[in-house]
Amino acid sequence: MNMDDLTTPALILDKSRLARNTAAMTEHVRGLGVDLRPHLKTAKSADVAALALAGNFGGITVATLQEAEYFFDNGITDMTYAACIVPSKLDRVAALNARGADLKLITDNAAVAAAIVSHEAGFKVLIEIDCGEHRTGVLPGGPQLLEIAAILDAAPTVELAGVLTHAGHSYAGRGIAAFEAVAEEERAAVVNAAERLRAANHPCATVSTGSTPCVLYARDLTGVTEVRPGVYMFGDMFHAGLGTRRVDEIAVSVLASVIAHREADNQLYIDAGGLALSKDRATGAFDGDADCGYGLICDAATCAPIPGLHIAAVHQEHGMVTAGAPLPFDRLPVGAKVRVLPNHVCMTAAAYDAYNVIEGDGKNEITTTWGRCNGW
Amino acid sequence: MNMDDLTTPALILDKSRLARNTAAMTEHVRGLGVDLRPHLKTAKSADVAALALAGNFGGITVATLQEAEYFFDNGITDMTYAACIVPSKLDRVAALNARGADLKLITDNAAVAAAIVSHEAGFKVLIEIDCGEHRTGVLPGGPQLLEIAAILDAAPTVELAGVLTHAGHSYAGRGIAAFEAVAEEERAAVVNAAERLRAANHPCATVSTGSTPCVLYARDLTGVTEVRPGVYMFGDMFHAGLGTRRVDEIAVSVLASVIAHREADNQLYIDAGGLALSKDRATGAFDGDADCGYGLICDAATCAPIPGLHIAAVHQEHGMVTAGAPLPFDRLPVGAKVRVLPNHVCMTAAAYDAYNVIEGDGKNEITTTWGRCNGW
């Protein structure tokens, strides 16, 4: 089967680009002297996980219990569920761990910690630290850290496994110096929290940081034991705008067909709209060409960008393409195919059940199909 | 099984609200003297289709070939695929029709019309008309209409089935007078196109209009034969803002758990983020409380809105809830459930494979589960 045979829109994964991205991150993190626990929330694929885990210790990060169960069924046991646990989900975690999984949990809440220690099953739990994103997590210097630690550490069935943080505010940074600064802020916060736990005679084996920009630009990870980047595997146009991934490194694209011309308005329409691309407007944070609307239009065969085109609007099944200069209607007749590089690949990929895998720029053959585990 | 037993986030469908919405539309369209060909792009469910079709002639509208195949497998034959066909999809259409489906196509392009008549299979085709949305479609008074009609009508294997339009610009209207005006613009355009075809001795049996606001507020549909609304079945917060659906009529919601408190910033987090809710910001078009961010927070049991709360930001698996006044943290402890009414239900529902069906406000029992056909 070839790309030409696919019904559009369809999700394409270039395994060659993916493999370069995963190998580069594995080497980079080895150089930092920490473990790489890749986050599979973006890929949601056991086949992608195999590449991301090559040369690493074998642990992963997940964002849903569905992912945890799927990856366990695909042979991965060491997992961290990096979203705050709630008591109603503990039974499902316990059932998975009873089957042999080693799924670790996070919390930032004393009442949840109390529910965890009250559960009949045992759990490994990390305390989430707020290193400056101000989303979830306790402050590294605040009283809640020790309060939660005391609850967890007192329970014979629970292992206080460490501390974990996510510097999501790295995405607001612009330029290498900004990423370096956030990476150090992240490191300092979580190491500070770890030191406070140890000073209070609590264990803290794991000290975990996240976010692709921080991992790429951290100069020093002293005190950190593992990192959890995820988007680096695929990259997207938001990362291209940040400078943390080149456009020709982006491994996932949406194959689409031109379905209509509106020459009088210098518009053409493709059959990839809000469902096929997502409505994520992350690149709206950038000026000029770095804002590609809802995705970057590329040549279907080579995946080379077609300069100047952007997707200005999406409806459910329609994407409206326009440009500052006259569109190349002759090059893109109705029925022609294009590839769209996504704004935010975590959102775009979630619309599809599977990746159609090609192996390199200019290759047309779908060499295999890799499943995804969507849902919760 | 009860709502309480679901892992959050989960998609909830209130069958009582749905049944009232579908019955009301069926009665309303009967009063207009036209056929109702409900658009199933929102619901993507054979069980929902059964309610929407009750009392109607049995034809539906679809937005993808996946939907066409799914609904045919569930016993529906009379379908219109209301997105511009491209030549590469004709084989798949032909295969479905060979199995017994009656899937009609649309085009606005002479080259595509030529490809259709060159295909070995026969097809029924409507010409798409631009009634003012300026998306796809030919102008009712322009030369392309007759050019395409001549190509299609000359082919013995092809039936020129009529004209179809979608007044998507109705969604830019505010107030009943605006919807009435767009509805008349839509009617006038498509009827004008039909009259031009007939004057040129072409057949034009079907004259089809769309969009929920236009159907709800059309005062006269003289010359129209069928209407294709879809979102009316469920409704959403965008339609609530438009005044085309009351909040207590919205039939689909996302059950979510409170996963964290950040009291110092008057924020709490739920486990419904960008994937569970979509990143659609349709309600951003409204002022004040009608802009609920990424969805309206409601009581989990009754689905009554909790006043003042809105979802100010979403990450992949996190939704950040805040309010102008202090949040009711005591009422919403970590672990508590809420229901979120979606901004744009077509986008939100697409993240789920199934509806968990309840039957009425305050009901907790999941009486059944209804599947969806996502993808292409």
Tell me what the structure shows.
- 2 copies of one chain form a homodimer.
- Chain A is α/β, with parallel strands linked by helices and 376 residues long.
- The first copy, chain A, folds into 2 domains: 3-10 and 244-371, D-serine dehydratase-like domain (Lyase, Ornithine Decarboxylase, Chain A, domain 1), CATH 2.40.37; 39-229, TIM Barrel, CATH 3.20.20.
- The first copy, chain A, has 11 helices and 17 strands.
- The first copy, chain A, has helices spanning 15-32, 46-53, 65-73, 90-98, 110-118, 143-154, 176-199, 212-217, 237-242, 274-277, 345-349, and strands at residues 10-14, 35-36, 60-62, 78-81, 102-107, 123-129, 158-165, 206-210, 226-228, 252-262, 267-270, 296-299, 310-314, 319-322, 337-341, 354-358, 368-371.
- In chain A, the strands form 2 sheets. In chain A, strands 1, 10, 11, 12, 13, 14, 15, 16 and 17 form a 9-stranded mixed beta sheet that branches. In chain A, strands 2-9-8-7-6-5-4-3 form an 8-stranded parallel beta sheet.
- In chain A, strand 8 (206-210), helix 8 and strand 9 (226-228) form a beta-alpha-beta unit.
- The first copy, chain A, is elongated, with a radius of gyration of 22 Å.
- Chains A and B meet through helix 5, strand 10 and helix 10 of A and helix 5, strand 10 and helix 10 of B.
